[in-house]
Amino acid sequence: MNYLLFIWAHARPAPDELAVLQRKVPAWVEEMDGRGVRLLGRELELPETAATVRVRDGETLVSDGPFTETKEFIAGFDLLECADQEEAIEVAATSPVSWFQTIEVRPFAETLTLGEQVSTFARSEDAAGTPYVLMAWVGGRPAQAFDEQAVGGEVQAWREDLETRGLLVLGNTLAGPDSATTVRVRAGETLRGDGPVTGRNEFVAAIDVVRCADRPQAIDLASAHPIARSHAIEVRPFYRE
User: Fold this and answer.
1) Which of 27, 52, 157, 178 places its Cα 20 to 30 Å from the Cα of 221?
2) CB within 8 Å of 118: residues ≥ 6 apart
């Protein structure tokens, strides 16, 4: 089963923290890749590079910045293939990132869709286009009537269209907020919490990674996302050296 480890940060790592991460993370990645539990992982650009997209009465509304205005922000993620959530939590707790940040463990609700470009994305080979994450945020009162089953079918058709066009790297719907577990390791002790970092009122309901020519194209894809009519899609590029 596939799990996503959202890495929540509150700022850039301090120099001493960065030194530890640069020293320890490569060995963790090698070990988890060797075990076959980690499929890939990428770092996102900082939240000021984000755009939040909504569609209201047929008009696309774009605002600068991430969907959430909290101190913490999603800094990246790792994609896992684990037997169950306990194994995914164990993997998260062994990550050096958990010593300084919070990791949110979320399962996918359905089989993860992997596009043809997933292997090059995993290797950070972005010559074919810039990768963007489209995060569907759900919470509060929807802007219009929200039939979950009907919208789910529309989202699947939207994703299949992206795959046909060669734009989809990976994506699918995540399990609900009650499935989330937060993991932090402090002084050698694993601290677990129930629910997503942002709480159950506002949370990421689906995640898609697309490869685009530029930011306007990524925003266009987000505006076509069926959830944008009722909630919001956060668009953010991945970090590129």
Assistant:
1) 178
2) 40, 169, 170
Residue with tokens 């997503």: 196
CB contact at 8 A, 143 and 56: yes
Asked if 185 contacts 191 with a C-beta cutoff of 8 angstroms, the reply is yes
Range scoring the smallest mean pLDDT among 79-93, 189-203, 223-237: 189-203
Model confidence pLDDT, tens digit, residues 149-186: 788 899 999 999 999 999 999 999 999 999 999 999 99
Tell how strand 51-56 and strand 113-114 pair up. unpaired
Tokens 């790297």 correspond to: 169
Q: Which domains are assigned to the chain?
A: 2-237 (3.30.70.1060)
Phi–psi pair at 229, nearest 5 degrees: -70, -25
